[in-house]
Amino acid sequence: MSIEVGSVVEGVVTGITNFGAFIELPEGKNGLVHISEVADVYVKDVHDFLTEKDKVKVKVLTIDEKGKIALSIKQLQEKKPEEHVGKPHAAAASDSSARPLRPRAPRDFRKPNRFNNSNASFEDKLSRFLKDSDERLTDLRRKTDSKRGGRGSRRSD
């Protein structure tokens, strides 16, 4: 099967960059799925949708004179108007060897929420919140007072 514009082929993800994913196609050719063509939803990080060695179905968008092949996964996905915005759609292909795209768990490296301890009572959570809030306000005042010239930094003539 030759690779032509508009054809649907199956390939393997060989590399992921911040701008898309490289796909190895049949006949030893390689193509690129740009980040904007990965899913119907906003894609901040391609790693949230694809990993290396994933089998995916792609549509060939263009083949330029240098032989570069532009691919799309998004154009093969079903459009379901009743789904909520923000959820990716299942892949249109029913072939089980190419898995449908689903975002992976978000990479949130922030500290866990200290106030959402389900074992603590409401009063304990409120007490912790007030203490933390007071500490933050004190730090903020200390930093801003020194910039404004407050607390003893005034000159007496």
UniProtKB/TrEMBL annotation:
Please report which protein family the annotation says this sequence is part of. Belongs to the bacterial ribosomal protein bS1 family.
What InterPro entries does the database record attribute to this sequence? Answer: NA-bd_OB-fold (IPR012340), Ribos_protein_bS1-like (IPR050437), S1_domain (IPR003029)
- Here the segments flagged for biased composition (Low complexity) are 90-100
What would you give as a GO molecular function for this chain, any one?
A: mRNA binding
Q: Could you tell me which residue ranges the S1 motif domain spans? A: 6-74
Which PROSITE patterns does this chain map to?
A: S1
Know the name of this protein? RNA-binding protein S1
Renumbered to this chain, region (Disordered) spans 77-122, 137-157
Q: Name one GO biological process term.
A: translation
Q: Which GO terms describe its cellular component?
A: ribonucleoprotein complex; ribosome
| Key words of the record | Ribonucleoprotein, Ribosomal protein
Q: Does the keyword Ligase apply?
A: no
Q: What does this protein do?
A: Binds mRNA; thus facilitating recognition of the initiation point. It is needed to translate mRNA with a short Shine-Dalgarno (SD) purine-rich sequence.
Bias-annotated ranges (Basic and acidic residues): 77-86
Q: Which SMART domains match?
A: S1
